[in-house]
Design brief:
Shape: elongated
Strand order of the largest sheet: 7-6-5-4-3-2-1-8
Number of helices: 34
Distance between the termini: 53 Å
Largest sheet: 8 strands, parallel
Radius of gyration: 35 Å
Length: 969
């Protein structure tokens, strides 16, 4: 054994490193020396051993491992093909098996859509059928390169891909999604791109399943399928991709177990063991001179025909080089010995042809300079962030719009729509529903009975039906009979968009698409496909895909309608695609956990968007410290003072943009209550910049408490009435006229000695009063009608309990000084609560996504979607630091970065950035220079607001710092 290793190592000094691209110009002389030196030292049995590639698993017991070790040590097998298991376990076994082999082993795997086809904890790419819809071949080639890097990192030389089968039979039970489609040119182009990517990284690609498994009705794992086409048809269609890829340097071919009478006259004789097919057709007629693999010899399509050992010998005599998944190597070796020594069935020339070819490819792969797999960072390397980047791009290019209603798809004017969603199928759908709710309020309706369903849907202008089936390549994706009835019934009476998260053939049983307005085919049911489909429905992403198979007479190969993307709508992507480092960004998770562990807040939401793409959106912790309910991205937080810039300020900007008010407008002219006060000459810009000399706040609630410090009966009732309509908490209602008292006390309050920066809630309480009088509607209605409806906000609202269940609203405090209850679903701020939950300074509830939309609208200077809310000029005015020269950092309504020392930001934002913080533990910040939005929401005030640990711990600021550090310069 040592002698062989010495030869290998010595000669490998002249060979090529393992990571070089195998088809670069190699010295044929060096290759020949290496191959001959190894071959000439082998016994007959050792030469035969090189022909076998045995099945290995990394999820089986020690007995299995011993059995493989025995085959490697005693029978000198030439390679292993790994099946189920995990990457680290497989790497360890590969190192073990290689250490026990005289000649380095070939190691291969079926990784048609990545290593995850066989291994857990590895990356999963789209199926070939999904890739068949992608029109950009460079993306598929890039996928091949990434797959090859992963396979090579795991010590593999072969990826048994691409599948070259042309799936012309929709009922094919084993190929189906594994094919690129039913069109030979499309299959060839996609397979060629994948092959080029794989082989560019020094990994051998294997075209399969020759001569063509695409039009079979049975599975060769269980029986011998038949292909009844003429040779002319096979040559024209099934052989087409092989001939093209042969010219481009395909390294190897896998021969299927098929019954093809046009190629093999012996009845029921598998193509995998047919000399006519493997030698006469594949090698001589088609001119293929690369490595030839059998398909797995344990498959019933082969094993039913001959016994173990006999089938291996027959396959070799047919012309195959490598015998895959032999069931009994010891018996097979005996059969080979008998055939060679006794029966003269095997010639030295025939054995030399295959064994030297195998050794030649081992030399090309760099196995002559074999190095064990480095286990350090293996998992991280196999799941690098750039793989997610490409996956997003692939689905963005694959999802296909097959039918659309002109001028009404994508859905744009969401303020005019009432949208329902119905789930069909039996698999997960949350990512799709979340994606839909990102762009509009969407109500999930459950199809309990058709009669009740139709009745409920009468109030909706649009109905989106999602069909969700488990994302397995071989799983059934069929509609149930009752689901087809539901779909037909609702599409007769409603404007229906059907989104299918399953293979294209799922659409075959739909006999009439006439009543279905829009059809979106997403191909697979995973989070990325669901997210992209939702984006396409609302125009945040354009549709580019084209269906790779035909669907009866309704849709033909290549059908796919393009849609127009609205660049002003937030959509989703990955950090690296917008120039951010995901590894650095992941430090946010650590800081969030630090806050939770330190009991700075029970839970939180964090969102980061850049260049119009949400690239980080996570929730952490629980709604409270009982740890019963985890925070989700759909939970709705009390955003406290963010209300100032999310509700009051944008409405004021509308009036400013319409020239109804100026920065020099005086408070006495805005509201009569200030006409005869010392505040009458305060200018609007002074109010907005907190430069007006107003008091910080007044604890209005204290004057409404009785001698026991509880709500006084003079001001409160336990039930609603016309005189006591202002709901402060669950069973507490305030006198109708108390808002007048609030305004009167502000008007009568003392001004500070001089006009200098002093943050005051009075500003936005005053502005609420002004807006409602000037625009003649309550502030909550103004914000809803002027902004939230058209931007498509499903969670941002005042008084959330009127629209949603309390279970999605984290509590803000155990109030033991005013309301004496758990404050949940009612605004935490006492003054806003005393205004019926609608304050100009507080009162809004929202999730992080809806906050991000408003911040993105600001970042786009008053534009979102197809609508201009106010002009660029207006935004610039309000984002100006008017009093910076006096040490006041504030903009006109917006907070701005600190001028020095501590402040609302990390100190690393640009001076053009803007935003606001909130008492409950919130921040919303946008930076035009970096095209960046950052949102942090929490309920740090629960159970008590007394100590602000979150602020002391600088969690929000430290997270913001990480965000800026992650920007790739």
């Amino acid at each position: 054994m040592r002698y062989f290793l010495f030869i290998i190592v010595f000669i490998s000094q002249f060979a090529f490193a393992q990571d070089e691209i195998y088809f670069n110009d190699h010295s044929l002389a060096r290759e020949k020396v290496w191959v001959d030196s190894i071959y000439n030292q082998l016994t007959f049995e050792e030469k035969v051993g090189q022909l076998f590639m045995v099945a290995a698993y990394s999820n089986k017991d020690a007995e299995h491992v011993k059995s493989i070790e025995k085959l490697v040590e005693d029978y000198k097998v030439g390679g292993v093909i790994f099946f189920q298991g995990g990457p680290v376990r497989q790497a360890k076994l590969t190192n073990k098996y290689q250490s026990k082999s005289k000649i380095p082993l070939f190691v291969g795997i079926d990784a048609e859509w990545g290593l995850s086809m066989r291994l857990d904890s590895t990356y999963r790419y789209p199926w070939n059928m999904t890739l068949g819809a992608v029109q950009d071949l460079k993306l598929i080639e890039k996928m091949g390169k990434q797959m090859a890097k992963q396979t090579k990192r795991l010590g593999l030389q072969f990826n048994f891909a691409p599948v070259l089968d042309i799936n012309t039979n929709p009922s094919n039970p084993i190929i189906g999604n594994r094919s690129f489609g039913e069109n030979k040119e499309n299959v060839t182009n996609k397979a060629l791109a994948l092959m080029k990517g794989i082989q560019s990284e020094g990994v051998f690609a294997t075209g399969k399943h020759f001569p063509g498994h695409g039009d079979t009705a049975t599975d060769s794992h269980h029986t011998l399928p038949s292909v009844t086409f003429s040779k002319e048809r096979l040559n024209e269609v099934e052989f087409y991709p092989y001939k093209k890829l042969f010219k481009e340097g395909l390294a190897s071919v896998m021969v299927a177990h098929l019954n093809v009478p046009a190629l093999e006259s012996r009845e029921g004789y598998p193509t995998s063991i047919s000399h006519n097919v493997v030698t006469d057709l594949l090698q001589k007629e088609l001119g293929f001179n690369g490595l030839i693999f059998t398909d797995a010899l344990n498959m019933k399509g082969a094993s039913n025909f001959k016994q173990p050992g006999d089938i291996d010998l027959e396959a070799f005599l047919a012309g195959n080089d490598i015998l895959l998944f032999a069931e009994n190597v010891p018996v097979a070796v005996e059969k080979f010995c008998k055939a060679y020594y006794c029966d003269s069935l095997i010639s030295d020339e025939r054995l030399e042809h295959s064994v030297k070819k195998i050794l030649k490819y081992k030399f090309k792969s760099g196995l002559g300079n074999y190095k064990p797999i480095d286990l350090n960072n293996l998992y991280e390397d196999l799941n690098a962030p750039e793989y997610e980047d490409l996956n997003y791009e692939l689905y963005e290019n694959a999802v296909t719009v097959l039918k659309k209603e002109e001028n009404h798809f994508p859905i744009k004017k969401v303020e005019n729509e009432k949208i329902a969603y119905i789930k069909l199928g039996d698999d997960k759908n949350q990512a799709f529903l979340n994606s839909l709710k990102t762009y509009a309020p969407v109500t999930e309706v459950y199809p309990d009975s058709i009669h009740l369903l139709l009745k409920e849907l009468k109030g909706y202008s649009k109905v989106i039906v999602g069909f969700h089936k488990a994302d397995g390549a071989w799983k059934k994706h069929n509609f149930e009979a009752n689901e087809l009835v539901i779909l037909d019934s609702i599409s007769r009476y409603n404007n229906v968009t059907l989104a299918v998260f399953a293979k294209p053939y799922t659409l075959l049983p739909i006999y009439n698409f006439g009543n279905i307005k829009n059809v979106v085919l997403a191909y697979q049911n995973n989070d990325i496909a669901q997210t992209v489909a939702g984006e396409i429905i609302f125009g945040a992403t354009e549709a580019k895909g084209k269906i790779p198979v035909s669907i009866n007479n309704f849709f033909k190969v290549g059908d796919g309608l393009k849609t127009v993307k609205n660049n002003n709508i937030l959509s989703f992507s990955t950090p690296q695609r917008v120039g951010m480092n995901p590894k650095i960004l992941s430090k946010i998770d650590i800081l969030a956990q630090k806050a939770i562990d330190g009991k700075m807040t029970p839970g939180m939401q964090v969102l980061v968007a850049r260049k119009g793409k949400v690239i980080y959106q996570k929730s952490f912790g629980y709604q409270d410290y009982t740890k019963k309910t985890k925070v989700t991205n759909q939970d709705v937080y009390d955003v406290a003072s963010l209300t100032k810039i999310l509700s009051t300020l944008p409405n004021l900007m509308l009036l400013y943009d319409r020239h109804k008010i100026t920065m020099e407008t005086k408070l006495g002219d805005m509201l009569p209550i200030f006409e005869k006060t010392d505040k009458k000459n305060i200018h609007l810009k002074e109010l907005l910049a907190h430069q007006a000399g107003l008091q910080a706040w007044i604890p209005f609630y204290q004057s409404t408490l009785d001698s026991t410090k509880h709500p006084s009966k003079e001001y409160y009732r336990k039930t609603y009435s016309a005189e006591f309509p202002l709901q402060v908490s669950e069973n507490l209602f305030l006198r109708r006229t108390y808002n007048d008292t609030i305004m009167k006390r502000i008007a009568e309050s003392k001004l500070l000695p001089k006009k200098e920066y002093k943050y005051s809630d009075f500003t936005f309480i005053i502005l609420k009063e002004y807006l409602e009088k000037a625009m003649r509607h309550p502030l909550d209605q103004l914000s809803q009608n002027n902004f939230y409806n058209s931007i498509g906000m499903s969670t941002m609202t005042y008084n959330p309990l009127r629209k949603m269940d309390v279970s999605v609203i984290p509590p803000t405090e155990m109030d033991n000084y005013f309301r004496y209850t758990k404050v949940q679903g009612y605004v935490h701020d006492m003054a806003a609560a005393m205004q019926g939950g609608v304050g100009g300074h507080a009162g809004l509830f929202s999730n992080s996504m809806d906050v991000a939309k408003m911040m993105q609208m600001y970042l786009q200077k008053g534009h979102y979607g197809d609508k201009e809310y106010f002009s660029d000029k207006t935004f610039d005015v309000f984002n100006t630091c008017v009093y910076c020269s006096t040490g006041n950092r504030r903009g006109l309504g917006f907070d701005k970065p600190q001028l020095s020392g501590e402040g609302p930001t990390c100190g690393c934002t640009s001076m053009t950035s803007f935003g606001h913080t909130g008492f409950t533990g919130a921040i919303a910040w946008a930076d035009p220079k970096e095209d960046l939005v950052y949102v942090f929401l929490s309920n740090r005030t629960f159970p008590s607001a007394a100590e602000n640990k979150l602020s002391k711990g600088n969690i929000r600021e430290d997270i913001q710092k990480v965000i800026y550090e992650s920007i790739v310069k």
